[in-house]
## 1
Amino acid sequence: MANIKLKKKGFTLIETIIAITIFAILCFVLVNVYLKYYNAYHTQQAIISVAGSASTVANELQNATLQAKQVIISHTFSSGTYNSNQNVLVLQMPSIDSYGNILSDKYDYVVFYASGMDFYRLIEVDGSSSRDQGLKKLSDTVSTIYFFYNDSDFSKVNEITVDINMQKTSGHQTFPYNLDQKLYLRNL
Amino acid sequence: MKNIFLKNQKGQIVIFGLIFFSLMLIPLTGLLQYVSVYVSSEHHTIAKAQALQIAEAGIDKAAYEINQNPNYAGESNTSLGNGSFTTSVSTIDSEHKRIASVANVPLGNGKTITKTIMATLGIDSSAISFRYGIQTGNGGFVMSGGSTINGNVYSNGNISATTGVHITGSAIAANPPALDVDQANDTPTPISSCTSSTCITFANATATQDFAQSFKISEALPLNNIQFYIKKVGSPGNETIRIVNDNSGSPGTDVLMTGTLSSSTVTTSFGWVTVTMPSNPVLDPQQTYWIVIDGSSNSTKYYIIGANANGYSNGAAKIGKYGGTWNNTSPSGLDGYFKIYLGGGTSMIGGNTYTTGVYVGTTAEDTAWAHTVQGATVTGTIYCQTSSYTNKPCNTSLPDPTPQPLPFSENNMQDLKDDALTGGTISGDYHVNWAGATLGPKHITGNLLIDGGGTLTVSGTLWIEGTITLTGGGKVKLASSYGSNSGAIISDGYVVLTGGSDFAGSGYSGSYPFLITTSSCPAAPGCNGNSAIYLSGGAGTVALVAQNGNVNIEGGSSLKAVVGKQITMSGGATLYYDAGLINENFLSGPGGSWSYVPGSYVIQ
């Protein structure tokens, strides 16, 4: 019974203060650790996102350029006219049938262009071509993109250097990413 | 009980620990999961890039294999890097093959990235194309002595054939190239007033009754017309224009052609007057000929032709009487003003006045095609505009055939020389005797002689700056390393093949040696009367090429193909043509490799 009485007395003030102090310290540590993890998580997420986005853009550019017959000065798509320049790439590709055979004198057209931070690929194909067409957003992290052609005459260009600068903001931090790549026209 | 309660109090820290750990684990787990997804995505991206590169490697490998063996059909699951490729080859036509290269790169989770690239390989058959067993340039060719061609014939000039000549395939004679000034002496003009050095008067006296001017033409094309810078005094009669031989520096009396200078076309002022020749024989560029303006004489009705002193380097003018005495001009060394136009004629097959002059074809598909067919028996259709002494009339539905380019371009020739240079240079002559030799690629600055039954094994392209002579059983064969490809020996001098000389390929089907000369003999200096290629008997499976000169074939020679600016066959010469030579592959050099066709590349 004596023991039961002792238990009913509750915590002493000192015990309570000590307990609260320990709890506060633990909470402080925990919140700090959590915030650091949170920041690290978003930092890594931003870096991964921007790098992955750069890979996607580079792959799509390479895929189209390899198959392109030539860089063309200008082409009118259903959504408007695009002109090849330092920021826009318009390509003409031989049309293909479902077996991958080239269709004589028939061409598909693709344009790569940026709008704000978004980077798009638009394909329009000949009616007999089996290529998929349509507009696809390849990235939303492109800050600048530059195309450098190895000949001022677009019809003679067989090598393009693309310089892609990307960035993604996480919190108050901005994470840049740069990719330089040479693209070759195999069908010229 | 006390002990138990105390234990519960101490356990509070465990709860705190678990909560703390859980809160830390939540973002950690999320981050790890995101990293995992990213790694997987990047792995996927890298695998796609690798698959693209491996598929391209498959295309390159297929191109290499096809150049080694045109019958290569592809291969399966060839390992490369982290993946493998499978290629398949399908033949589109004789000049194109479609390659499909499928690359697989495993991701490690049981999945595989697959990339397919298709591309077309082509061979530049327009550069080295032997569509005819025998093909000539504008010199045409002459067949006699019962010579036979087993195959098709294409000539950019006449196909002249005497009795007993056989062409087992089709014979096509294209019209010669367009009219062009070949020889001219025409400056200065106009001549405002005559002096003894600027005018030659003739047809005014017996001693100066006729005018003559010697000349040489530069290439074996039909002489089409001649122009004179001439005027008349009074009203002289017409003059006869004769092309005659040279007789010790004066006009001879062997007349090759005649034309008429009509007085009405000549005025009392100087002007160019054209005399069109009714027949257009091909003159020998190595021979000197004379133009003779032959007529009567009258002291008040005569002609004056414009002249200059030594203005024409290939001849001189003379004054005198045709069939009589000729004298130098006064002053001596004058040349009359004239122009000679070559080309522009029409083609002919045959040339005899009996239907058995030349036999063309063995099947209904074998045709004779020229502007004129004369003295011929043709199995198939005769496509022509005029005919005589033939076994059937002209089918006029086709226009005259046009000249076709010869197989080798100048660049092709240079490519072969460049290829030979890669193996170094041998200065001076090279002699292969009974012991034989293996050589190539190599550049030889002198002559090549193979005799004494010796065999030259060609292991690479040979460029001989001098002459090539095979005699005394000399042989040439390609090394086995050529496989089914052909090899070339190119010379800048003339080639003499006599005494049972023999040629052979590498031993593989479709492999042949090509003996090519850039020589323009017998027209060029230093030819000493030799043709660019002279062949007497033997030879075997060799293709002879002399696009700038004459190929003279005598005796029972058996050849793979022959191309010359002009070809002469006589003495029972027989040419066997193998259709397999249509598109020829060289191990290296011109047109020799299957290569990627731009515009055919597709990623699927």
## 2
Amino acid sequence: MRQIDPDFLALPLRRLADAALQRARDLGVEHAAFRLERVRAETLRLFDANLEGSIDADDLGFAVRVIKDGTWGFASGIELTPEAAARAAEEAVRVAAVSAPINREPIELSPEPAYSDVTWVSAYDVDPFDVPLRDKVALLSEWSSGMLGAVDHVSASLMQVKEQKFYADTAGTVTTQQRVRVHPALTAMKTDGDRFDDMRTLAPPVGRGYEYLTGTGWDFPAELAELPDLLAEKLKAPSVDAGAYDLVVHPSNLWLTIHESIGHATELDRALGYEAAYAGTSFATFDKLGSLHYGSPVMNITGDRTQEHGLATVGWDDEGVAGQSFDIVKDGTLVGYQLDRRMALMKGFGRSNGCAFADSPGHVPIQRMANVSLRPAEDGPSTDELISRVERGIYVLGDKSWSIDMQRYNFQFTGQRFYKIENGRLAGQLRDVAYQATTTDFWRSMEAVGGPGTYVLGGAFNCGKGQPGQVAPVSHGAPSALFRGVRILNTVQEGGK
Amino acid sequence: MTPQETVERALALSEADDCIVIVDEGSTANLRFAGNTLTTNGVARSSQLTVISVAGQGVGVVSRAAVRPDQLAGVVAAADAAARDARPSDDARPLIEGTSLDGWDREVEPTSIEVFRDFAPALGESFAAAEASGRRLYGFAEHILTSTFVGSSTGLRLRHDQPTGRLELNAKSTDMSRSAWTGVATRDFTDVDVAALDATLAQRLEWSKRRVDLEAGRYETILPPTAVADLMIYLYWTAGARDAADGRTVFSKTGGGTRVGERLSPLPVRLYSDPAYPGIECSPFQIAHASSREQSVFDNGMRLGATDWIADGTLRNLLQTRHSAELTGLAATPQIDNLIMTGPDGGRSLEEMIASTERGLLLTCLWYIREVDPQTLLLTGLTRDGVYLVEKGEVVGEVNNFRFNESPVDLLGRVTEVGASAQTLPREWNDYFTRTVMPAVRVPDFNMSTVSQAN
């Protein structure tokens, strides 16, 4: 197991925390938390095997959050001295005072055991920031060059993040954590006559290190070798006839549908209306807990902040709550929500399930998504077996366009590849496909889920929520799954052409 | 160490052939509220140093937060080393030669929670009024001040102070079944009248008391300025010259090249940017922390002036770097941080457009807008917070929400009326883009693809 970087531990973490928390106590707060973060991100982009741009950036600072007279106050700072930390505590108390006249709900938090001086590091082998930039550029360039000639253009990108957090609160919890994530992606582009199209790798972003690019967890050379021919086939494929089809959806596409129609819909802050003006609310309102027929009986959804290599996996969340795994949908029925400490207490859950997260030292922790995943069926079918059950349908791979309404009812998704299914067999690719449904109709139409052999952990670096806007990384696991009678659009016809 | 000193010291430390140093000093204050009460708040400061070193045609970019004086040499050395190690960059060009603007030496004045000193009590009064009238207010108020300093080894010493403020106000009925939204962009919150904004929302919630369910289909639709802003911003973001020249976008010409010079609208529509436009002023020079397809670090400091993207209904320019301008043989017209759209002289107000509508839909705003097909720029998304049915010149009730599938480029060719332009806050994209002046437009056949149950 990797250790937390010594240069992060060498920062005056405890001295600053002690100064901030003591000043907050002196000012009479009910609760205070100190968080110091360093988030390092490097992004590089290539086009046709040449480096187009790269930036190696970090964000470093600390935050103090207080509850004073029942009102939140938050301030952050960048000067890493005990004096600045104490000033931030004072400023947070001032913010609470200015805000008090417009606060009508006294803030209280659910209880959580204190964790004294504990550490956690995510599962990775090679720190991507230990790999020279030229080696990364060379690898992406080699991969791109391998496709050029067979395709017109290739774009390639690699995002790498190392997130280090120190947290301490007035209840006595002190946590220090470090996690790493990477996201390589390549897109091939080709024109055939008047038609242009592209196709991106299906490799998901993961909570791994640079080893992900060199053979651990994904076979990039194998995927890249297939891409030019797949794109050529897509360019010559017929345009889909709009109508109702059975769908077999691969996890490389289904993860995003899970994210939008289940992940966000089961955030309790949304269900209670706290995101109503921005991200929206949820059709899965609190009164439906335990009774909402979310999907078919084969639908089992878990929230998990402990899954190895998951992008939302942590040891403790940004309110000092231990990472947990919990049920959200069981046998098709809504049985749980994702919680932070305030929401957990407010609605009588007793304890938070650890879903508070802030994306930077300058932002407050808000309720963010766990790794929300669809469980495969033990002894469930293979993807081929699912396809064999379809007379007239479409097999969907890879995510592309996505959109869903502000209560998470109506969605529309496209993908990287769509195959016609005829009489239980794949019959070539289709173009111009989008699927559109209402969330509960879609999940109730799920007839079967694949077995563990079909399960893949997908995800994204950039789930957006909150104001000021915050981005969070999150993974979603899924098996292949079979859906009956889903509305398919022809996107060219939708454009009026 | 002041940001100006940081720039000078970093430039002096660099051993690369050339060097650009950017310092961004930021401060923010915000209030967020839901259900007539505060939910979160905060103040934050940031300081980001970006060193862009150039060695031959190689470039290295290292950006670090909260850099202490003793760390400066390390950051510069890392950028220098990255540049020496880099392959030649396609966009490498001689750096912009020294120019300077007034105010370089002035101190940075951060914003604070005090920016809401008058606004917060007024908001509290609106909460009380809303509570008494059966409305719940939701929303967000934010003020940001960013001072950006750009210095270079070729003599640039440029500074830009950018205030950005926004208020989003959303009113809902107590059962959450009816919703209305408005938003304003502001530079300092002194011009925000929250009571007046709440009054417009109260009127719209009254409109929505009568519910009319409509099927999906194509409807005559009035898009208000905020909805037009969101669509035009998407168009603007996808107007990169390189992608167009590579055949990837709606601005690619069949058979090669770009569509610059092609008429997109029969109406004399103008879409342009102008750093000096009153009320939505933005940086008059190029600031690029990293190169991409639409911007180049080598263009830092390039002066920006009023630029037509579409004029007299015809595509005039695309987002360019000096490099892409050479590739495409077009003018070097970098992206600018504001966007203005106008139609023919004498454009009518939104109220006048409603009054002249026999039967049609009036939207409040659009949401969750995403690209479906880059080659047509087909976008999908939702209507949100009030779709109103207009009959014989009056709003007669609220209609269900819809998912739409439309291309803003295609819409430009079908718009039958462009109203008077006014400053507006884009609903969807205001996290990234707040400075817009837009008209309402009338579309005779807006494609509502399906009904959304959301309200």
## 3
Amino acid sequence: MEAGDLGRVYKDGEVIVRQGEAGDCMYVIQAGKAEVLQEQNGRNMRLAVLEEKDFFGEMALFEREVRSATVRALAEVRILTVDKRAFLRRIQEDPTLAFRVVEQLCHRVRRLNEELARIKAGT
Amino acid sequence: MSFGLFSSSFKHCLLSRPDVNPSNLKLDNGSRVAVIGGGPAGSFFSYFLLDMAQRSGIDVQVDIYEPRDFSHAAPQGCNMCGGIISESLVQLLAVEGINLPATVVQRGIDSYMLHMSVGSVRIGTPLHEKRIAAVHRGAGPRDIKEVKWKSLDGYLQWLASDKGAHLVCDRVDHFDWKDGRPQIKTRGGLVQEYDLLAVAVGVNSGLLKIFRDSVSGYEPPRVTKTYICEYHLGQETIEKYMGSSMHVFLLSIPRLEFAAIIPKGDYVTVCLLGDDIDGPLIKSFLESPEVRRCFPPDLPLDPPSCHCLPHINVTGATQPFADRIVFIGDSGVTRLYKDGIGAAYRTAKAAASTAIFQGISAENFRQYYWPACERIAIDNRIGKIIFAYTGVMQKLRHDLRGILRMVSKEQMKDGCNPRMSMALWDLFTGSAPYREVLLRMLNPVFVGRFIWNVVVGSLPIKRGRRP
């Protein structure tokens, strides 16, 4: 890690968040890639690959649910943690901070819709 | 110039124009916005104004007036600042999609060393993560030989330009009203009228006097002098003596409120905050054994590579807005002693969202922008109480021993609630509002533990009991 790098480095294959665990922070990728995995019937299914500036773990900030998926480092990845309390307090003062979160959630819904349409078309 | 006649002439201009109703002023397609000052406040304002305008489908033109070129070393390219981006701002920028690059961040800070007359202790973050960024606002100190890192202010200007802002490299030295709109004139002779003017100059700018005389109700912030200097140590020496720790000092030196040494790339920055910092105060700080221990023994601390005595705010501005004008960053309201760049982000964003979603009249700014400033101003009053208390505490060795003992114990026990460590972390790094720090300090468990540590820490040390 360079002196000027912010965040923390996770090595290849290292788990950053684990499905089913409680979480009180979200994460923003500073450099590198991470994969989102969901365990279904004992098998890990890859749902997405996240890149620089993508964030994850935001669902745990808005819902009182456990982590819905596991996120694992793909090669070396550098990640910055965003504290739940500071983030929610700031959103309350400045609702426009949620623009990017909403934008990314919209992209995910759009991608899921496309995926669903493809699955339905195939059946 | 019509400064003295401002109130009556401006109202006259507004009332004489049928299309201008002060309560109905807003930005539309083709509106022109001028931003005076291309530091963090000006660049953040331009960036977020353009971002929100694009999201709302409004096409506005933004011109940033900044005479300095931040790719130059001090004094031409400097903005006279300690150069710390707080933990909270680093996180918020990441959420905004702005990841500060290692080409700008010279060192990520993950801990700090607290130095007191009774001893020193290292305080690390519970997450063991680098979330504070040490930067240079310009290209670096006066004697820099090779520019290895980019300037923060230059990087933020680039972000604003990338969003569509137009950078004008000229100094604004005259302001007036023309048909109810702000008109500016530059040293280079350019005369322009705008729909909205965002003033983002620092408190060291002479332009604020012009605005005080011409904008009804606006009174610039009150200031005090601070001292900032840089020492060239080289990367290896900094790594050996400081690592990724910021060094903060609670020393019993009269008029000194707070002091810090911030390690960067090849340089370290020394910042002294207090009541009218002067030569004798600087000398007694640099000669104190706690400070000398942070530097190589053979390094002469006088003269430094670069130094300045800039003004910093001790109060906010009075009424930092009017119809079609808003004052952001230091020229409006900023945080007391800490996190000035964070305050620039907050005020700039509050002003930009008001201008896009609410309007640009004084009433709009009063209703939607002023609460953001007021929150900071109220928090600063609490900050003054805390700093007054720490000032008294610096002279009380029993209290200092209690702090040292409590923090040392917290740092040794993994998993315990590090109440004192985190309160000091947030106080010194500016990562949380002062109100939150005070509430944590008033927590009965915190008070109880502190009193216990003061009592135990003051007991005479019994030696030779153990075999």
